[in-house]
């Protein structure tokens, strides 16, 4: 602005804005420059008065949010987000730059958080289009387009509140309370079907506006409030009463040189002539909790309404561009889009940008818009740069229209000690929080990567799910880990909640693990906790966890519970080898559990129904893998111990403790090595049962298959067991159950039938012999078994069945040989084999064109 300031109107300067509106932000900045106030009042929690000065620090980069939470229950929290294009942020920055006091005048967070717990959810219904906020509605529920004036709770907290309010919902529905969206009403009155497009045409594309724009918006809001009253925002009555009281205090101190930046919906209420006594009466008796407040980073994605936080805007990235672009916003935006598409290997040139600009401007003119908006630019991008495809447009919407910008707050901002320790650890491990999801590959043999793994596992134990484990693509070794990282703003609340466990990540995770170990109800729960403690490197918590594990393992006699616990325990022993953790006590417990399973599993398999048999089958498979892994771990540990501890005569300085530990490990490994043959004997016992006692066919078939895969059951013996199971004396449902156990599921059973036609012939002959009256009962089991096979396997099996058994005998006239091996197809066809001989010779570096006789001889 140039020239002398405009003459100040009488009374306070009421600037009604749309939260997160760049047009409103420009207009606020222009109004404050034109009529400089002595104090700026902003719609927001008054507790923030003490920390608003941090907004002037260079390390403060929006989007950020004010986070207020109950001191004794950090899970009860609210956010007040602010973007770089928010009118409130523009007013704060202007005031701090001109050394003008800034005060927040909304209802204190101490009251709003206490009121939110008791409040029923009220659905918001807009007359036309999606709900978009001009003035900020009550902080009642998740559907609200909540901006800076209303606290926004994390999704998990909203879900909990919704559960608590289920009983109050019918009452709210019967009252038929409807929340009015002022912007939607005004856009409908103007003939627009899209409130966003109307707001862009009226405000965003009209320059910085001026006092006239604020006057017009205030008049429109007054008319709406005269028509709709509070519009379904019942809490606005007490909020506006508090705002009027704070405004009176400011006018007593600074006179009429006061500027108020608030949602336009509240402007008529702030101009009402009411008494201070009446306003205080409205505030009397409000519930209250002790609160703490701080600044936390926010993201553009959380400002978008469709992301679940409902901040009232669908395109924060676009609005940020409009606010910060110095000139030619459409040209600069399409240049940015072209850069993104080029980075993703789309062929986009400068000519595409020029044509897209022309098309966007033409579309705006045809649609009667003052300037090309987001809809016109996206239509132009789709037509010119994307060849009509919506796939690149989805990328543009995600990366640019919404965006993944993550704000930053200075270190001097108030934070719980746990948050400060987390920040220091993130910096030391060079693990920066980012709003965009990314994959992180870790090699646990490297110290930095091992530290990152421990940090992420500790945070998960504390309920701070910054990273989630993913499947490693490059390696399946235990020294590799893959994580998907994405920092969400609500994780700041989780960190505050976890602060009750300790002041550092390590101490908090240790304390929580010890508490969970003491309060755990089941054996599987404790074994999972032991595994998580090893992954997180919580050596101080392991003694407590191990005592709890030993106690529960000794008392639990349920084979199913023992089978659930063993795999996690064995994985923990294996992880300990990679992370250098002493897992001797874990190994002892694992061997003890396996011993008890060996004894208890056979009788536990008797008399099971279909569901029980299916569950026991899963337990048996898991224990089979765990025992194999335990034996491998024991062997590897024995070899490593032999390398690290030479013979006693060459190591005279070995301490008594080392000798004792070595002897314990050796005994443990010997016990683990003996488990596998005993487990195989137990499986053979299960597989050989003929139904007396009543062991389900599913269990017997799976036991036979596990032995066959391990090479402990000959193929002829497997065929004999299948013949017995499918004999005429076996009931068809029981036989089908045996087949499901032996070849069912995604365990390679289909390929077994493809390569062993004896087994396929047994199944085929049995299926043909099933009586008609029993076929209906058998069909679902068979369908479930064979539907799990790949399409190619099913097609091959069908061809084999259609062809019938392979003909035995010498080579026939067609050149087909006798079966090369029992159970396999015919031998080589020399004519077909000879066709590939030249190629094979060429690959081997031999003469590619030998004599014809040599070719035939080579084929034979």
Describe this structure in words.
With 860 residues, the protein is of the alpha/beta class. The protein has 37 helices and 10 strands. The strands form 3 sheets. It has a 4-stranded parallel β-sheet with strand order 1-6-2-5, sandwiched between helices. Strands 4-3-7 form a 3-stranded antiparallel β-sheet, sandwiched between helices. It has a 3-stranded antiparallel β-sheet with strand order 8-10-9, with helices on one face. A hairpin with a 2-residue loop joins β3 and β4 (73-82). The longest helix is centred in the last third of the chain and has 35 residues, at 610-644. 43% of the residues are buried. Mean pLDDT is 78; it is low at 120-150, 153-177, 306-311, 635-662 and 807-824.
The total count of strands amounts to 10
The amount of helix comes to: 55-70%
Give the terminus-to-terminus CA distance: 95 Å
The radius of gyration computed from the alpha-carbon positions, rounded to a whole number of angstroms, is: 36 Å
């Amino acid at each position: 602005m140039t020239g002398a300031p405009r003459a100040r109107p009488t009374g306070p300067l009421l600037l009604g804005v749309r939260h997160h509106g760049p047009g409103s932000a420009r207009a606020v900045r222009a109004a404050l420059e034109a009529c400089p106030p002595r104090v700026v009042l902003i719609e927001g929690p008054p507790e923030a008065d003490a920390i608003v000065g941090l907004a002037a620090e260079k390390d403060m980069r929006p989007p950020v949010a004010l986070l207020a939470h109950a001191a004794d229950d950090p899970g009860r929290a609210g956010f007040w987000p602010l973007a770089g294009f928010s009118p409130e942020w523009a007013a704060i920055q202007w005031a701090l730059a001109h050394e003008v006091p800034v005060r927040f005048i909304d209802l204190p967070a101490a009251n709003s958080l206490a009121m939110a717990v008791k409040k029923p959810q009220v659905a918001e219904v807009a007359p036309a289009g999606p709900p978009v906020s001009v003035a900020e509605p009550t902080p009642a529920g998740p559907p609200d387009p909540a901006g800076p004036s209303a606290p926004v709770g994390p999704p998990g907290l909203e879900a909990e509140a919704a559960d608590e309010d289920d009983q109050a919902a019918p009452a709210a529905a019967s009252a038929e309370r409807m929340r009015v969206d002022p912007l939607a009403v005004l856009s409908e009155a103007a003939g627009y079907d899209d409130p966003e497009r109307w707001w862009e045409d009226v405000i965003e594309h009209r320059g910085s506006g001026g006092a006239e724009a604020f006057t017009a918006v205030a008049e429109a809001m007054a008319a709406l409030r005269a028509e709709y009253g509070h519009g379904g925002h019942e809490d606005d009555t007490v909020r506006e009463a508090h705002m009027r009281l704070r405004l009176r205090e400011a006018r007593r101190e600074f006179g009429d040189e006061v500027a108020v930046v608030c949602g336009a919906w509240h402007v008529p209420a702030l101009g009402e002539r009411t008494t201070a006594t009446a306003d205080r009466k409205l505030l009397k008796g409000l519930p209250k909790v002790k609160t703490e407040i701080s600044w936390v980073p926010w993201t553009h994605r959380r400002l978008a309404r469709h992301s679940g936080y409902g901040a009232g805007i669908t395109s924060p990235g676009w609005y940020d561009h409009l606010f910060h672009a110095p000139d030619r916003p459409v040209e600069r935006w399409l240049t940015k889009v072209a850069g993104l598409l080029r980075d993703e290997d789309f062929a986009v040139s400068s000519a595409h940008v020029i044509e897209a600009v022309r098309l966007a401007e033409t579309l705006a003119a045809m649609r009667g818009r003052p300037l090309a908006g987001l809809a016109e630019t996206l239509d132009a991008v789709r037509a010119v740069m994307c060849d009509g495809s919506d796939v690149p447009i989805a990328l543009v919407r995600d990366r640019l229209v919404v965006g993944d910008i993550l704000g930053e707050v200075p270190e001097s901002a108030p934070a719980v000690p746990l948050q400060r320790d987390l920040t220091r650890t993130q910096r030391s491990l060079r693990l920066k929080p980012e709003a965009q999801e990314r994959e992180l590959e870790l090699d646990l043999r490297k110290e930095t990567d091992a530290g990152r793994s421990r940090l992420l596992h500790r945070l998960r134990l504390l309920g701070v799910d910054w990273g989630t484990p993913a499947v490693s693509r490059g390696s399946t070794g235990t020294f590799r880990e893959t994580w998907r990282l994405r920092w969400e703003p609500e994780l700041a609340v989780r960190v505050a909640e976890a602060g009750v466990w300790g002041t550092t990540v390590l101490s908090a995770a240790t304390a929580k693990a010890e508490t969970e170990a003491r309060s755990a109800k089941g054996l599987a729960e404790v074994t999972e906790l032991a595994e998580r403690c090893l992954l997180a490197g919580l050596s101080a918590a392991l003694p407590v966890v191990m005592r709890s594990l030993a106690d529960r393992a000794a008392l639990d006699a349920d084979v199913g519970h023992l089978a659930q616990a063993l795999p996690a325990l064995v994985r923990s022993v294996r992880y300990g080898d990679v992370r250098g953790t002493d897992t001797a006590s874990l190994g002892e417990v694992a061997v003890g559990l396996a011993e008890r399973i060996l004894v208890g599993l056979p009788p536990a398999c008797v008399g099971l129904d279909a569901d029980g048999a299916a569950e026991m089958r899963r337990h048996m498979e898991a224990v089979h893998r765990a025992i194999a892994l335990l034996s491998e771990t024991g062997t590897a540990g024995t070899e490593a111990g032999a390398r690290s501890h030479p013979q006693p005569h060459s190591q005279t300085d070995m301490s008594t403790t080392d000798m004792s530990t070595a002897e314990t490990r050796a005994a443990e490994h010997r016990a683990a090595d003996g488990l596998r043959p005993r487990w195989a004997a137990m499986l053979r016992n299960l597989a050989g049962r003929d139904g007396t006692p009543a062991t389900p066919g599913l269990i017997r078939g799976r036991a036979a298959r596990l032995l066959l895969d391990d090479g402990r059951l000959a193929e002829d013996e497997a065929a004999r067991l299948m013949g017995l199971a499918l004999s005429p004396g076996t009931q068809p449902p029981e036989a089908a159950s045996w087949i499901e156990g032996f070849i069912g599921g995604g365990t390679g059973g289909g390929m077994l039938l493809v390569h062993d036609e004896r087994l396929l012939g047994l199944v085929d002959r049995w299926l043909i012999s099933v009586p008609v009256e029993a076929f209906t009962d058998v069909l679902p089991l068979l369908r479930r078994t064979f539907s799990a096979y790949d399409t190619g396997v099913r097609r091959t099996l069908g061809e084999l069945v259609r062809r019938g058994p392979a003909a035995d005998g010498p080579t026939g006239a067609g050149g087909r040989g006798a079966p090369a091996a029992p159970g396999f197809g015919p031998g080589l066809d020399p004519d077909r084999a000879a066709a590939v001989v030249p190629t094979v010779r060429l690959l081997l570096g031999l003469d590619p064109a030998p004599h014809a006789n040599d070719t035939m001889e080579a084929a034979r």
